[in-house]
Structures are given as C-alpha cells and as structure tokens.
Amino acid sequence: MATPGGTNRASHSLDKSITLPPDEIFRNLENAKRFAIDIGGSLTKLAYYSTVQHKVAKVRSFDHTAKAGEADGEPLYEISVQEEITARLHFIKFENTYIETCLDFIKDHLVNTETKVIKATGGGAYKFKDLIEKKLKLKVDKEDEMSCLIKGCNFVLKNIPHEAFVYAKHADSGFRFQNTRPDIFPYLLVNIGSGVSIVKVESEDKFERIGGSSIGGGTFWGLGALLTKTKRFDELLQLASKGQHTNVDMLVKDIYGGAYGSLGLTGDLIASSFGKSATADKEFSQEDMAKSLLHMISNDIGQLACLYARLHNLNRVYFGGFFIRGHPVTMHTITYSINFFTKGEVQALFLRHEGYLGAIGAFLKGAEEDNPNQYSWGENYAGSSGLMSVSPDLNPMQRARSGTFDMLEMDRLERQLVNLPLLQDPSSYIPDTVDLTEDALAREYWLYCFEEALDGVVKRAVASQKDQPEAAERAEKFRQKYRHKLQTLRHQPFAYGSLTVRSLLDTREHCLNEFNFPDPYSKIKQRENDMALKYYQKVVRSLEELSWEQRQFALVRGILAGNVFDWGAKAVSDVLESDPEFGFEQAKQQLQDNSGMDIILGVFPFVRELLLRGTEVVLASNSGPALNDVTNSELQIVTERIAPRKVIDLSLYLFLLPSLTFNLFPSSRLDKVLATVVRERGTDLVIIEGMGRAIHTNYYAMLSCESLKLAVIKNSWLAERLGGKIFSVVFKYEVPSKAQGLH
C-alpha cells in the first residue's frame, strides 16, 4: 500500500483485507460533484454529491366515461415503469493508510469535469493538501474545522431520526436512541480530539466556544503510550476494557475504611487516580494502568462538561471526536461521569454519525449555492453501513468490518418535512409501539418473519416486471442484500437507530429500490382496485337502506373488513393466494366483535358519510409505494372515478404523505403542505386506519385533538401478545389528555 511518502503502485485496487469491491464503496462516482474531505489523525472522511437514476412505478388513468361500478372490462389505469433522477449525498470513512489508493480510484472513475474545488477540513487537510491536488486535479479550499463540525451536527440532528443515543452498558443492546426533537437548539457539543473543545450552539449560525481543556484524547493516547508501550489508540482502549482500575486507583474506602457518609462519598469512589502506584511496591499490569488512565481523563472531561452545562443552563450535551468513535468503554466512562456529577439530571448523548460531522459540514459549505438545508434528507439503509460496534468483544461479522470502510448515504426527499402540528407533546412522541432493539423476543420473531417472507417478496418483484428478462437476476441480488441486512441487524440491532417493524420495512423498500423494483405490488393493487370499483355503488346502495345507527356500525365493519386485504401480512397473503375468490363479505365474516377493498369499499363509504354530514375531509396517502398500500397517484385516479357520482365533492381535500412506509407521522414529521392544511383548517379529528399505522406505530400517540385508531390484527403472534386472536379488532377512540379507548 502506497503512503504519502512512499512509492506509487501501478495497481489501484484496494487492499485485500477490504471485503467490499471499490465500486460498492465509492458509488455513483460517474455522476459525482462537489467533493469535501475531512482528514483527522487516523481517519479520512470523504463526502460528495451525486445524482442517482432509478425506476419508479407510474400510473396513468384511462379516459373512462362509464359510471363507477359499470363493468366495462377495461382496467382503471395503466402502470408503467419510468426513470427518475434523485439527489444523493455520499459519505465514506476509512483509515488514512488507504488515502492514496482511494484517491487513485476516484481519479480513474471521476467523469464530471465541472468540479474544480474540494472543500477540506481537519488537522490532516494541510498534510495531504499536495497529494489531493495532484491526484484529483482539484484545488483544496480549507474550511474552519469547528464551524464544519457544528454545521454537520445540526444537519444530522435535523435529518436523521434516532441520531442521538444514550449508552447503557448493561442494557440488552447498550444503545437507547432518542427521538428527533422539534427544536434541536440550544445544545452543548463537547468535542474530544487531542484536546477538548466545549461549544454552545444556539442556532443554525450562532455558536461559541465557551471552554475547553488540554487534557483530552491526545493525553490519553500519549500517557498511555508511555505507560504501556502501546502506540495504537484502539489497542490502548482494548487494554483498558480488560483492566481493573481499582488495582491502581486509591478509593475512598482505601483511605477511610468505607464510605465518607457526611460528605456523601461512597467507598468505591475514586479518591486519587493512580494513588496506589505511589505506595505499592509492585508492578502494575498494562490493562489496569490503561483503565485507570481512561477513568482519569473521562472524569475530568465529564466534570468540566457538567460545569459548563449548568453555567449555561443546558441539559442536552453531545459528545464527539476521535476519543469517542463508538467505543463502548469510552462511552461508558463518560456516561458514568456525567451521571455522577449531575446526579442524573443530565444525560451524556452520543451520535451515530459523529465521525462524519466535519465532512458533512465542509460539504454543506461548498454546496451553499444549492441550499441543501431547504430540503429534507433521509438515510438510505441500502447503501449505509450503520453504527458498528468496535468493542473488543466483537462477533466475527463485526470484527471483519471494524477499521476498514464505513459508508453513509442520504437521499433528498421529494417533499420538505416539518413537525406535525397535532401532537400533544412533540418532544415525547414515540412513533413505534415496540422497540425491537430492547425487546429481544420480539426482535427474533420479526427478523424470522421478514426472512420467511423474503421468497414471496422476490416472487412478486419478478411478477411485477414479467416483460424484463433480467428481473430474476436483479431480484436475486435484492434477496442477497436484504438477507445480509437482516443478518447484520440480528447481530447489531442498533445499526440504524431503534430497530422496529417500520425500520425493517424501510430497509426492505430501500433494497428493492436499489435493484429497480419500485412497486412489487402494483399489479396486485391494480387488480384489486378494478374489482372493488365494480362493487362500490352496490355497497353505497346497501348502506343507504339502513337506519342511521345500523349504518354507522356497517361503515366501521366495512372499513375494518377492507383492512383485512393486506398482502404484507403473511396470514392474509396465504389466504389470498390459496383462495382467489376470497372477497369483501368473507372478510367481514373473519372479523371478531389495503388498497382496493381497503380504500374503495372500506374508506370511501366512510368518507362519504362524513361529507354528507358537512365535514371537511383531508385524505392522506403515501406518495410512494409501501407494501400494498395505496399511493397518492392511485388514490387520485380512484377519486376521479368516484367523485363524478356526487358522493365526493369539493369539501374533500386530497393530500400526500412522504413515502416512509406505513407510519402516518414518520418521526413526528410530515409533508409541509399537508401540515399547513391540517393547521389552517382547524383539524379536530384524526382517523388512523390499519395495523401498520394504528398498532405497529401511533398506538400510544396522544394528539391535541380527538383521534380514532382502528385496525384488524392480522398477525397471530402480535394478536396473542396483545391478548387477542388473529383478526381481532382494535377500535380506540381518544380525546386530548385521555387515553381511554374502546377495544
């Protein structure tokens, strides 16, 4: 491997120890532009912008003149697969050892010649300036390290759900992720590099370094090298993880024989770091000395951070820098120190992507003309490595990845997301009902379910593109990638934040899109919609014959019966595949006191009843595919066919939801236009329908207006957990500040 001071190699292939091929690390280089780089003492972080071409499923309405319900034999709409371009941000992290070879690979594959400048930050930007300019033929434009760090931190806190976490050493996963807050400011950032910088961040552009210390990561590394003769930082941490600091440190009980009660000091508290080494006539192990040193540095930083947090009345304190780097032993010692000095009033918060903050900030500074902050961005799980533990007790899969290459990809969302205005307490809103990161039994069950369902998803993906001969090959690649993701999540459930049923579905959708399967359920939904539309008028006429009270019960049973048609639920898909004649009336019979049947025969009659009462209705749907849920474009066509029959008039407001699977309020954020309408129209009732929206998510969500959550439980394991049976009904009506519902 060539180094900056070594000789060049003819080959530009990456080191054999790297398991991924280069084109899977530096993806979409042919469309790359606006580079940025952050070079630290041991790690390089590269950032660039690219455009990605991918397939999307489009629906187009035929010119129908017949009434809804007339069987004219023609489908409701046609489906086509078209190409679209999406903006994507790439961030890659690797050891400085690989920098020259990586630059060579980028140079050989870089097509865009418009890029003339690369933004650079970090202590190594000066050291490698000449090498970068020589290899990439780009001028290095250095940016202030601290301002890049803050800009990057603001970006990830705003755009990545579950970016921040508390480290709990003795918890099942060790990581307790925090929900994205509506307002991320103000906060304290403690950056632990060679020294320590403590920065108060008050807004996007206002921050101030309010303190710091020369005793930081460099102190731990330097003194550790003198004490143990270990020169590598990670090896020093491994020594510390195996050590026992009480063999070196003098404790309160070593001085007083126990606790010092009048001062509130426990006997196990460190009274003097390295105190025993002055009096004990013996050799101390390298492990014990490394552990004592780690505690000494961490406690000093923790106390300093606490003092500044109290002085400035801040309760959000984020820690970052190479001293942290996701190491459990450093996160634990910092957490313990913060908890001790604040008596539990302040939590030490860490960031999943703290290593990328400088590179993200430098990139944003170089892309200000495009104003990336005006958009919302989402993590692409298919192209991101996720949070990797670097514990010395790694399992083999983790150990193979540690210290090589790490990737983060973020896609620009088609719509800007804002905070939902109807949450009673946005800061405490938790979308998902069960956190699989914490619940080991539930995690194992759902991972097994998604693995079992993989063959069916592959089958439907191929069937959705029968006219494309290479579809089977792409579907097999999807299978391999998603299975690998599931295996990773089994070992590292914390990889993408809190693991939930929703995030498992998100990951699957991302992998499907990766291999150009935009909507595997499109043909199924088309068939269901065509069939359901034929029966719509019959359903309406039968409802009109009922008394008011009977009609209300029939409408609710209808919306629940429609909810049974869910190809994403294995129990239902098994029935639908084995019995093609299974219909709406049979679904009603399954109930104990999603597209197609769900929307047309379930939701629309319910909406019609509200409209006839003079109620304005905002009907929200996903903008993109998620399982077999109806998409906005499909819903618009269905509405156009039904509306001329004067059952839906201008009182119906039709809006979109972001395509973030089935959560109605994804991480408390939703489409800005929809949020504006919800606020301006004075919404006083929210109806959340479906197992995904009302049970897997939002089950405990408290709104500032009345809400109705209704769904059919189509999973036997989940039904048993909730104390019911499969096809049991949840009907939960709530008013503000109360959680009383009818089940």
From TrEMBL:
GO MF: ATP binding; hydrolase activity; metal ion binding; pantothenate kinase activity
Name used for this protein in its record: 4'-phosphopantetheine phosphatase
Pfam families cross-referenced by the UniProt entry: ARMT1-like_dom, Fumble
Similarity annotation: Belongs to the type II pantothenate kinase family.
Cofactor(s) named in the record: Mn(2+); Ni(2+)
Native source species: Astyanax mexicanus (Blind cave fish)
Damage-control phosphatase ARMT1-like metal-binding domain ranges (all copies): 451-588, 592-724
NCBIfam families registered for this protein in UniProt: panK_eukar
